[in-house]
Amino acid sequence: MITEHHLHSPIQPPRRTLMGPGPSDVSPSVLSAMASPTVGHLDPYFLQIMDEVQDMLRTLFHTTNELTLAVSGTGSAGMEACVVNLLEPGDKIVVCTNGVFGGRMADVASRIGAEVVQIERPFGEVFSVEEVGEVVKKEQPKVVGIVHAETSTGAVQSLKEISEVVHEADALLLVDCVTSLGGMPVKIDEWNIDAAYSGTQKCLSCPPGLAPVTFSSRATAAMDARKTKVSSWYLDMSMVRAYWGGSRAYHHTAPINMNFALHQALRLVLDEGMENRFSRHYANHCALKAGLQAMGIQFAVADDHQLPMLNAVKIPDGIDDATIRSQLLNWFGIEIGGGLGPMKGKTWRIGLMGESSQSSHVLLFLAALDQCLLHAGYQLTPGAGVAAANDFYRTTITD
């Protein structure tokens, strides 16, 4: 039962340092944008905001795709929007599954009656061009789905050569960019990606609630050639794009203030400069890595496949996953993530995304983890992690 006291209590969430797999820390200016006066979803001011959001997303996606917008919903809504618009019942999709989110893409496709063929790699590994090409040549699917940055494992997948073999088979390439967009290059046009989706709460450092998507002309042509209605009314791009495009036909009431927040978050990304932002993410990843290795903690992913914004590391033998994460949260206000699937209890996922990718966060986390591990009886040289990270910053980063 809600007591009168609880009913009238103001919402006062604790202040956290968000270093998990998302959400990331949010800039005060983005939070302020969310608190701006609400206008109507067809107000001329809001329509201008929509246009500017589209333009900034095109820049971030490195694309000229006309159909580029922010789906009203979290990153999973972006995934579902791409899948249900590109596939009809009976269509075949090859899904490359090497983590939780590849599996989720396959699940969505199966629910709408698509024929799903999964190729799998162990969590933390990536796909070769040859194995994807072999399956695509054999199966001749309409769509091939793959994850660029697998949030569950911390592994990044190269895409350009895979895109070539996908298109040789005349298939469409669908890519999950939820964790990569805004933290590392996502080159939609150069890599010839037909559809991609992301989320606001990772490297864009905006609260969860919108899902940037982009569709190539080949993808829109495939949607226009459908013989059946899109299974989801809410996510039907034939109607949603009319609202975001020239006719401004009413479809649904957009989350106006969330779009204000995304607009400001995208401005911050572009004001920083994308190359500067990518370099910042990579530098803080390297500093964290140096610090963890000095503490005897190893990454769960091979060096050439490690994501700079999502660091999956092996939990040392004899150390309890949940206890350390609880201590980090309760003693220091730091949130990190645990492993998923077969990595549950075996890895920690340490996020350095957007606003959370800061040297101060790296050093705070290493100092806090040092104390938690020492408290658990783990053998390490106190302060070694912080010292190694500081050495990296001192010898590598210049003004």
List its salient traits.
about 400 residues; alpha/beta; Aspartate Aminotransferase, domain 2; aminotransferase; seven-stranded mixed sheet; about 45% helix; Aspartate Aminotransferase, domain 1
What's the helix and strand layout?
Layout (H helix, E strand, L loop, with lengths): L3 H5 L8 E2 L9 H7 L9 H18 L5 E6 L2 H12 L5 E6 L2 H12 L3 E6 L8 H11 L3 E5 L1 E2 L4 E2 L3 H9 L3 E5 L18 E3 L12 E6 L1 H8 L12 H8 L11 H17 L1 H21 L15 E5 L6 H12 L1 E2 L1 E2 L8 E5 L7 H17 L8 H13 L3
Parallel strand pairs: 1-12, 3-4, 3-5, 5-8, 8-9
Antiparallel strand pairs: 2-10, 6-7, 9-10, 11-14, 13-14
Helix pairs in contact: 2-10, 3-10, 6-7, 10-11, 11-13, 11-14, 12-13, 13-14
Structural class computed from helices and strand pairing:
alpha/beta
The overall strand count is 14
Strand order of the largest sheet: 2-10-9-8-5-3-4
Our estimate of the beta-strand percent is 5-15%
Low-confidence stretches: none
The helix/strand order is HEHHEHEHEHEEEHEEEHHHHEHEEEHH
Radius of gyration: 22 Å
Terminal CA distance reads 57 Å
Number of helices, where a helix is a run of at least 4 consecutive DSSP H or I residues? 14
Average residue pLDDT: 96
Per CATH, the architecture of the largest domain is 3-Layer(aba) Sandwich
CATH class of the largest domain: Alpha Beta
CATH superfamily (homologous) name of the largest domain: Type I PLP-dependent aspartate aminotransferase-like (Major domain)
